[in-house]
Write a structure and sequence with these properties.
Strand content: over 45%
Number of domains: 1
CATH class: Mainly Beta
Number of helices: 2
Oligomer: single chain
CATH architecture: Beta Barrel
Structural class: mainly beta
Order of helices and strands: EEEEEEHH
Strand order of the largest sheet: 1-2-3-6-5-4
Length: 95
């Protein structure tokens, strides 16, 4: 389990957003991402700069607060090298 709050990235086809994860476990989490707008039902999240990536399914949403169920975790140590644009974009995205 990750501590009370941790910074992460939500990413999906056509977008990447910074987020804060709360109550993160191996199976579910609560996330907040300010000004989120449209979000697909299935997307990905990372809390450790792409070393592990969680495949998420949207369980509920209230404004910028979402609850997700993790369908699985992928160890992706080279993913951050494959997608440097995601990191650059997210650095400029205030929560």
């Amino acid at each position: 389990m990750i501590g009370p709050a941790t910074h992460g990235l939500i990413f999906f086809r056509g977008g990447v957003r910074s987020c804060i994860g709360y109550e993160v476990s191996q199976t579910c989490a609560r996330l907040h991402s300010g000004g989120l707008g449209l979000l697909p039902i299935d997307f990905y999240v990372t809390f450790d700069e792409f070393f592990t990536v969680g495949k998420c399914h949207l369980a509920s949403r209230c404004g910028d607060d979402i609850s997700v169920i993790f369908e699985g975790w992928v160890e992706a140590p080279d993913l951050h090298e494959m997608f440097p644009v995601l990191r650059r974009h997210a650095i400029n995205d205030p929560i």
